[in-house]
Amino acid sequence: MKIYTKRGDQGNTNLIGGRTVKKNDLRVHAYGEVDELNSEVGLLVALMKEEKELESLVSPLQTIQHHLFDIGSLLADRNNKLELSFPDSYIQDLETVIDILNDKLPPIDYFVLPGGAKAAAQAHVSRTVTRRVERQLVELSTKEEINKSALVYINRLSDYFFVLARFINLTLNHDEVYYTNTGKVFHN
């Protein structure tokens, strides 16, 4: 099988179901952003596998990668020809993981600057890319119908990456750097 088809040489691509659209179509842009996020998560997994203390955190990330691929497939399949679903249980499972990690973290009073351990910094990159994905999905949802559970999941996912970054720094004994110029912003 050849990897190149030459169909995209004129700036077109096909959605699942055969509809041809331009590569700058909002839907194509959205699933491209999801694909980029999945790659960032793959890098995060690779960095975490380098740290024995973080091994138990890899499996949830690999599940997230599958969920992101599901979201990309839903976006590429405008009329749901593949009859894919994105159950609310994925959101609930993610919230459970967030709560477990967050309960082990010290409270914060200030904004946290991205950084610390390499894996924590990459979790912050994943968080910011997730926010971009969310903005893209919101824009698409103003023009076309998209899976609402997938949108909620992406919103929750950025929270997960924030908590994960903090947890990684705590686990690896890296100090967090706080932005204090605006004073305390969180009042516990």
From TrEMBL:
UniProt keyword annotation of Nucleotide-binding present: yes
Pfam annotation, one family: Cob_adeno_trans
Reactions accelerated catalytically: 2 cob(II)alamin + reduced [electron-transfer flavoprotein] + 2 ATP = 2 adenosylcob(III)alamin + 2 triphosphate + oxidized [electron-transfer flavoprotein] + 3 H(+); 2 cob(II)yrinate a,c diamide + reduced [electron-transfer flavoprotein] + 2 ATP = 2 adenosylcob(III)yrinate a,c-diamide + 2 triphosphate + oxidized [electron-transfer flavoprotein] + 3 H(+)
Chain ranges of the Cobalamin adenosyltransferase-like domain: 3-167
Pathway membership: Cofactor biosynthesis; adenosylcobalamin biosynthesis; adenosylcobalamin from cob(II)yrinate a,c-diamide: step 2/7
Keywords, comma-separated and alphabetical: ATP-binding, Cobalamin biosynthesis, Nucleotide-binding, Transferase
Domain of life: Bacteria
Top EC class of this enzyme: transferase
Gene3D superfamilies hit by this protein: Cobalamin adenosyltransferase-like (1.20.1200.10)
InterPro entries: CblAdoTrfase-like, CblAdoTrfase-like_sf, PduO-typ
EC assignment: 2.5.1.17
Key word rRNA-binding present: no
PANTHER family with a match to the protein in the record: CORRINOID ADENOSYLTRANSFERASE, CORRINOID ADENOSYLTRANSFERASE MMAB
Record family assignment: Belongs to the Cob(I)alamin adenosyltransferase family.
The protein's name in its UniProt record: Corrinoid adenosyltransferase
Species, as recorded: Alkalibacterium iburiense
